[in-house]
Write a structure and sequence with these properties.
The structure holds 3 protein chains of 3 kinds. By secondary structure, chain A is mainly α. Chain A has helices at 8-32, 35-44, 48-62, 65-70, 72-100, 107-111, 113-116, 124-149, 164-191, 198-208, 211-235, 243-255, 267-273, 286-289, 298-306, 312-316, 323-327, 334-346, 381-394, 411-416, 419-435, 446-454, 466-475, 504-511, 540-555, 567-576, 584-590; strands at 364-365, 369-372, 398-400, 440-443, 462-465, 487-491, 515-517, 561-564, 580-583. The longest helix of chain A is centred in the first third of the chain and has 29 residues, at 72-100. Chain B folds into 2 domains: 10-110 and 272-339, FAD/NAD(P)-binding domain, CATH 3.50.50.60; 116-269, 3-Layer(bba) Sandwich (FAD/NAD(P)-binding domain). The chains are: A mainly alpha, B alpha/beta, C mainly alpha.
């Protein structure tokens, strides 16, 4: 039998165009990867990573488990569309084979099987199954319509705004499955067959519409269905639906250990285009929820970056608190992409810059333990003197790296995108640490901590946040604390919690001196104080508004003292509340036995 | 026809500081029966903590005692140790559940002092030898101004605008009186310690009152007080207990650092902590700085937007003692006029 | 450091001539960040400056000169800044000082 009808042309052209663009995009991205990344892929291919990636593709690209966890209704919508469509294709394939045996059938033969199979005997089980799957997908489409019009009822305060390519693809996608339903039903009306859905509608149509009308309608319906498919396929690689296919290689590459860095690489393209623009990142963003800034969130940033229309104001207006990345169902490394976009906008290598570091050494004291206060801590002297008390109580010999001033850790500059110059600062500090022969580096600033751990080459020097250090002193009995009845609440600094994964150490320390009350948003979901150095765009007044909203939540715990472990958070929260705001070190120093 | 004796009108004055006492006295003189509600155990308010007043070095006790004497003499009813929790145009609620009724209310609750320990970088409450202007007045009053170890200071620095004109502590307004207080206290320090060097670190010097500019000039010329234009940014302790301070000498454009024996922070006036609660309950309006907003700046400066509630003194904005006393009289007159007394 | 003179030494015998200085860049900068006009020159930023603590760098002076149309050397001077953010924490006017540094560099840099 022949598997061709003129209405197949839009579909065939669309599919061919889509696969050509896909091949070109993936090919060029892979080709342009840095050599080290290519080596990672080759080394990873024959390992377990590949199998794990396959599992993750099923779990995420088809079943969308992560979205399910965040918002079940939204998860169902994505799953019904992705997994349902996948099953329609897969089961359709099996159906063709079941009917025709192992016989080569061109692609349109599978896709439009119901049209071509009118002469074949029907298998009721497949008719039922295919109708069930179609209903499954249609339920997802219905939810997608619903989400457009009633986003709040879907548990999302906001949904994304679209680019033209998206609108074309979205419109086509909306009509694909209703069109399929119509086309198949009409064919069933004319030739019989079909399951509970298409068969019933077909029977009804057959009874109420004259055959001449159905004949004409059939041709129109199949043309419309094919055109929707073709249009969707053509628009897809240029729309957000590119994520359908891009997430798959991304999962593999990520399993092979590829990561985005401070300089953009073509691996970033996989991440950028894997964004489905689901908009889940919008709600956690405090710039949105507190300040009503609603065009800078990760989804818009990725969109703008992808289409080459990224404005500095968008790139810069982000606290990099990581609340969105925590929720991203695709697991895109949003902060790093933001960072290397800033690098692209701003990095200007200047070899002479910071020549004044030469020969500089303002450090004092001597010891195997080095303490790096960080610039901000110099403005919170209570933390500084508390650390001094604690070191003395533990009998620690300390080398003070920067109490009389020193060179910044480099992270603020890096976060602004001037990554090359930041490296110069990092080199200076690394040499300083080496010169003084320290084996442990303690810092009370999470911003410094993160850059020391991630960007400095400090082999042989253990880097500790002061919360970890104090906990160690407590556990080893070098510090003894009085436990009182004071009720504390703890604010997780972004760079310490989500940034460095340190949630338990500060809590354990607080519980050694009093009772700990958790605010509504805590740990991975903790709010940002609003004064993040990563944001150079918002005003002072906006920072205060964020601080007030966060402080309000901390006050609501009923705690007497708000504790945090970051000088910047401390300063910020202090502006938002009249309650006492203390650094962890102050709390400890006050309760030393 | 027999004239029935009119019942005396009764006005509640909230706050027994300079503003409250003056308002009450003026009301009494106009034939109205005032009742002062004061949260402390005695009358006097913030004036009790003051030693001498600028620009004349008049002892604060002179003004205070005279006001108290007159209040006593006039037999004005006072309710002490009473915290007001709610205001209405004809009554106030007290924390203990009592209600005081009257024909009008004058809010003369004054200001709150800025807590200098909020500006952590200045080390107040962390290091010895960092004081506030209020500490200095108290020490002057006690007749014992000295470093923490009891010795005589040789170098003293005053820092202006602590908690004023500072968005970082959400206090945008100018407290007005700290500039002249800094000058006054610097002169007192020089009188006590003629050998000491006294420095005033300022952003702008605002000498708005009569005799202030002359006093400023006198401090510079007769007392050799140094004025450095720059805001101190950090204070850190030294091994010998002195304080090292950093600023930019903005007139030379160079960073400046020096060690001092005493650092005095000239703390500003904040809107009264109770304003928000009182305003919300009574429908009064707060200005962005948190002070209660008068109906207008000119003809209604002692009137609130609620009929029957009036303002006197620093509850509406920072003021000096003289202005406060004048405004209190104006408030009393406005009340009397409205009550037809 | 002494070898490089960026034009900010006190001895430079030159008046700021607002009749001749081209304020176009300055206007652009102030349009993007009007809050810079609120600087009252208290010097807090310069006093806390991490870079200014190590080398000759005066943020207040540089941005003031830029506002007066004196652009020469401003980019190079601003490049001494490490963007640590201490100044932003102390500015009594709440000026986004880090933003000012980046803005001035962007407007006056060669790129």
């Amino acid at each position: 039998m022949s598997f061709f009808a003129p209405f197949c042309i839009p579909f065939l052209v669309g599919a061919a165009a889509m696969f050509a663009v896909l091949a070109w995009k993936w090919g060029s991205w892979l080709w342009c990867l840095p050599r080290t990344d290519k080596r990672l892929i080759l080394r990873g291919l024959p390992t377990r990573a590949t199998l794990e990636a396959v599992g993750e593709v099923v779990g995420e690209s088809l079943l969308h488990r992560r979205i399910f966890r965040i918002n079940p209704l939204l998860g169902y919508m994505h799953m019904s569309l992705a997994f349902g469509w996948f099953l329609l294709i897969a089961v359709g394939w099996i159906e063709t084979m079941a009917c025709l045996g192992l016989h080569w059938v061109p692609i349109q033969g599978h896709v439009f099987f119901r049209y071509f199979s009118t002469g074949l005997p029907h298998v009721a089980a497949f008719d039922f199954l295919m109708d069930l799957l179609l209903l499954f997908v249609l339920s997802g489409v219905a939810l997608a319509w619903g989400k457009r019009f009633f986003s709040r009822r879907m548990g999302m305060r906001r949904t994304t705004k679209h680019v033209p390519g998206d609108r074309v693809a979205l419109t086509a996608l909306w009509f694909i499955f209703p069109a399929r339903l119509a086309a198949e039903s009409i064919t069933c009306a004319l030739y019989g067959g079909g399951g509970f859905l298409t068969g019933s509608i077909g029977a009804w149509l057959g009874a109420h519409v004259p055959e001449f009308g159905l004949m004409n309608a059939e041709s129109v319906a199949w043309w419309f269905y094919s055109s929707c498919l073709g249009l969707f396929f053509v628009a897809m690689p240029f729309s957000r639906y590119m994520h359908i296919f891009t997430e798959i290689p991304l999962i593999f590459l990520r399993r092979y250990g590829l990561r985005s860095g401070e300089k953009a690489t073509s691996y970033d393209e996989f991440q950028v285009e894997a964004c489905s623009r689901c908009g889940i990142c919008i709600d956690p963003c405090q710039l949105q929820s507190v300040l009503r800034v609603d065009d800078v969130q990760s989804v818009y940033f990725l969109r703008d970056r992808r289409y080459g229309m990224l404005r500095r104001e968008v790139a810069d207006n982000c606290l990099m608190c990581g609340r969105c990345a925590e929720k991203c169902p695709v697991g895109i490394d949003l902060n790093t992409l933001r960072l290397n976009a800033r690098d692209g906008l701003r990095n200007v290598p200047d070899e002479r810059r910071y020549d004044y570091f030469k020969g500089l050494d303002r450090s004092s004291g001597e010891g195997k333990v080095g303490y790096f206060a960080g610039c901000m801590t110099l403005l919170t002297p209570r933390t500084l003197s508390a650390m001094e008390t604690i070191f003395a109580a533990a009998g620690e010999q300390v080398w003070w790296a920067d109490r009389e001033g020193g060179v910044c850790c480099g992270r603020p500059l890096k976060l602004a995108g001037e990554t090359d110059s930041a490296r110069r600062m990092m080199r200076y500090n690394t040499e300083l640490f080496r010169k003084h022969g320290i084996t442990t580096l303690v810092t009370s600033c999470p911003i410094c901590l993160k850059v020391f751990r991630e960007d400095y080459a400090l082999d042989g020097i253990e880097v500790l946040h002061h919360s970890e250090y104090m906990l160690r002193l407590l556990r080893s009995g070098r510090l003894a604390l009085r436990r009182g009845a004071t009720r504390f609440t703890y604010h997780d600094p972004c760079e310490l919690g989500r940034g460095s994964g340190i949630y338990d150490a500060p809590r354990a320390v607080i519980e050694a001196v009093g009772e700990l009350l958790e605010p509504e948003h805590t740990r991975e979901n903790a709010l940002c104080c609003g004064s993040s150095v990563a944001n150079t765009a918002i005003t002072d007044g906006q920072q205060v508004r964020i601080a007030r909203s966060v402080a309000g939540e901390l006050e609501a715990t009923g705690a007497e003292v708000v504790v945090t472990a970051c000088p910047l958070c401390k300063k910020a929260l202090g502006r938002g509340t009249a309650a006492a705001v203390r650094d962890l070190a102050e709390v400890v120093a006050a309760e030393l036995k | 026809m027999k004239m029935e004796k009119m019942k005396k009108k009764r006005v509640i004055v909230i706050g027994g500081g300079a503003a409250g006492m003056q308002t009450a006295l003026r009301l009494a003189r106009r034939g109205i029966e005032p009742v002062i509600v004061e949260k402390e155990a005695e009358l006097g308010g913030k004036l009790r903590g003051w030693y001498v007043l600028f620009p004349t070095f008049t002892p604060a006790s002179e003004v205070l005692n005279e006001l108290r004497r007159r209040v006593h003499e006039c037999g004005i009813e006072t309710v002490l140790s009473a915290q007001v929790t709610g205001i209405a145009p004809r009554s106030v609620e007290l924390a203990d559940g009592r209600r005081i009724d009257g024909d009008a209310v004058v809010v003369a609750t004054g200001f709150s002092l800025f807590d200098a320990s909020v500006k952590e970088e200045y080390g107040y409450g962390i290091y010895d030898n960092v004081y506030t202007s209020v500490d200095i007045e108290r020490m002057l009053g006690e007749g014992r101004v000295a470093k923490a170890d009891g010795s005589r200071p040789k170098r003293i620095a005053f820092l202006h605008c602590v908690g004023s004109r500072d968005e970082k502590v959400c206090q945008q307004h100018c407290s007005r009186v700290c500039c002249i207080t800094g000058v006054k206290q610097a002169m007192e320090m020089k009188r006590l310690f003629p050998d000491a060097d006294v420095f005033n670190f300022y952003m702008d010097i605002r000498m708005f009152g009569p005799g202030y500019e002359e006093m400023y000039r006198e401090a510079q010329q007769q007392y050799n007080v140094h004025f450095v234009r720059g805001r101190i940014s950090e204070a850190s302790p030294m091994l010998d207990g002195r304080i090292q301070i950093k600023a930019e000498d903005t007139l030379t454009g160079r960073p400046l650092r020096m060690s001092v024996d005493m650092l005095v922070l000239l703390v500003g006036m904040r809107a009264n902590d109770d304003n928000a609660a009182l305003a919300a309950g009574a429908g009064l309006r707060q200005s962005p700085s948190g002070f209660l907003a008068a109906r207008d700046h000119f003809l209604g400066s002692v009137r609130s937007e609620v009929e029957g509630i009036y303002y006197a003194g620093t509850v509406t904005a920072p003021k000096n003692i003289g202005e406060t006393l004048n405004e209190a009289a104006a408030a009393a007159d406005a009340v009397a006029e409205a009550l037809g007394a | 450091m002494a070898a490089i003179n960026f034009g900010y030494t006190i001895s430079r015998p030159r008046a700021i001539d607002l009749d001749r200085n081209n304020l176009r860049k300055s206007d652009e900068i102030l349009r993007e960040m009007p809050e810079l006009q609120t600087c009252i020159g208290c010097g807090s930023c310069t006093a806390v400056c991490t870079a200014g603590n190590l080398t000759e760098f005066n943020f207040r002076k540089v941005h003031t000169l830029v506002r007066r149309g004196e652009y020469q050397g401003a980019y190079e001077e601003m490049n001494k800044c490490m963007l640590c953010g201490k100044c932003r924490l102390v500015c009594p006017r709440g000026i986004n000082t880090r933003g000012v540094v980046l803005l001035i560099k962007r407007k006056l840099g060669d790129f």
